[in-house]
Each structure stands twice: as structure tokens, then as C-alpha cells.
Specification:
mainly alpha; 4 strands; globular; DNA-binding
Length: 112
DNA sequence: ATTGTGACCAAAC
DNA sequence: CGTTTGGCCACAA
């Protein structure tokens, strides 16, 4: 865990991504109020532990590629598939699955 | 203080 | 499609 408010905000945004949808590291950073800090999001997710119940597998590169190499990456692919997301190779079509937060969410969950 | 390394990104070729 | 380039940072050496 981490008490750093920036990390907390990243956890908060990530946890809102619905099953069957995906977001990019950069998108999460933007929504968390940290524009241009996609690498921080990646770092935070890597450090996160299972007890936080974060849907880390719904976060990909902006290109739609799974960022993790090896066994973990394969695990991410499987989790996405189990949610109904089509993964071709190690890539997801962002245009089809990208999370688009509603105005309601923006006002009541993200901005506050 | 400087340098190298990341689960990154967008633009340009 | 693939690579390079310049930006972004956090962190360890």
C-alpha cells in the first residue's frame, strides 16, 4: 500500500474501469489528474498487491498492446478474454473496448 | 549532481 | 506495420 495521495487517486480511477472495458496508462493518469505521467501509473500498478483488488489487467498501452512480458502478460490476456474482450496476438482494439467514463462519473467519482 | 532504466506516449518518418 | 526522438517521471547506483 501507499498513503501518497497521487497513488491513492490512481487506485481510485483504476478501480472504476468496468469489466469488459480497458484503459491506457496515460488515460488513467489523465483522469487521476496527473497528465503526462503514464509511467507513474505503470509503476504504481506494478507495486500494487492483490489485496487492493485493482483491475490491473484492464490497463494497456495506448496502442492496445499488453505491456507486460512473460507469464504475467499471459495472465493478463486470459483475464481479458474471460471478460469477453477479444485479444488478437497480445493486442486489443482500443476503438472497440476503450472505457469512456460518463459525465456522472466525472462529476461524482473522479473530480471530487 | 549525473546516469541509466522502466508494465508509457505522441509525432514523425 | 517498425523505428527514432523528445517528453514525462521516480528511483537506484
Amino acid at each position: 500500500m501507499q498513503e501518497n495521495p497521487q497513488w491513492q487517486q490512481i487506485y481510485r480511477v483504476a478501480s472504476l474501469i468496468p469489466a469488459g472495458q480497458v484503459a491506457s496508462y496515460g488515460q488513467v493518469a489523465d483522469l487521476a489528474g496527473l497528465p503526462g505521467r503514464a509511467r507513474l501509473v505503470a509503476k504504481v500498478l506494478k507495486a500494487a498487491d492483490a489485496s487492493q483488488h485493482l483491475p490491473w489487467h484492464r490497463i494497456l498501452r495506448a496502442s492496445g498492446h499488453i505491456a507486460i512480458q512473460g507469464q504475467q502478460g499471459e495472465q493478463q490476456r486470459l483475464r481479458l478474454v474471460s471478460e469477453g474482450v477479444v485479444v488478437e496476438g497480445m493486442r486489443v482494439k482500443m476503438s472497440k473496448y476503450q472505457w469512456q467514463p460518463s459525465l456522472y462519473l466525472m462529476l461524482h467519482e473522479l473530480s471530487g
